[in-house]
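Limitations
The structure tokens in this dataset are predictions for the assembled complex, not deposited experimental models. Users should treat interface geometry with appropriate caution, especially where small molecules or nucleic acid strands are included. An illustrative entry is reproduced here so readers can see what is and is not provided.
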Amino acid sequence: MARFLIGKILVRDHPDGRTSGRIVETEAYPPGDASGHAFRGETPARRSLFLRPGHGYVYMAYGSSYCFNVSSEPAGIGAGVLIRALEPLEGIATMQRRRGIETLRDLARGPGRLATALAIERDLDGIDLCVKGPLWLATAALPIDAIAVSVRIGISREAHRLRRFYERGSPYVSGTRRLNAG
DNA sequence: AAGAAGATTCGCT
DNA sequence: GCGAATCTTCTTA
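Predicted assembly:
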């Protein structure tokens, strides 16, 4: 699913208006991955990861940033895909205001930044992304060759695994040159 | 009840 | 590239 989501469009419908972006970077946290939030079993805070595929899991990281995931395994099995970066499409002025910056390239480059840009907070935890609502996914096609793979960012456990996917050449992808070369 | 770790970001050097 | 800020969750006493 992490690979499948590259190129899809994440749409946020909010009283402020619509904001949306193309997903250009993801990371997989499959069942049994020691870095995954579902690794130690289901708890109230992690329950969304155990929902049917296509539900949102939102949590606060380091006290300052929200991160957004898409549940990826059948009900009862905990796993998810972290959305790490978007290419801004609609509502760019709104995103700029929420982020407090102008630079298009940095509006949604990074998991915490995209959550801020789209006003994704804990109230969206558990939402069904396959139904048009406050937050949903629109389909789009992308050539297989456009997707590259690398190790994941900011974790210590199972760090060598090739579970990060991104759009090759996109300036909206996070991480360093080394990680984006592939 | 207290402490450590963590899927980050921003400002400086 | 480095370190602080910040808070939720889980572990240990």
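Some entries come with short summary sentences. For this one: Chain A has one domain: 2-181.
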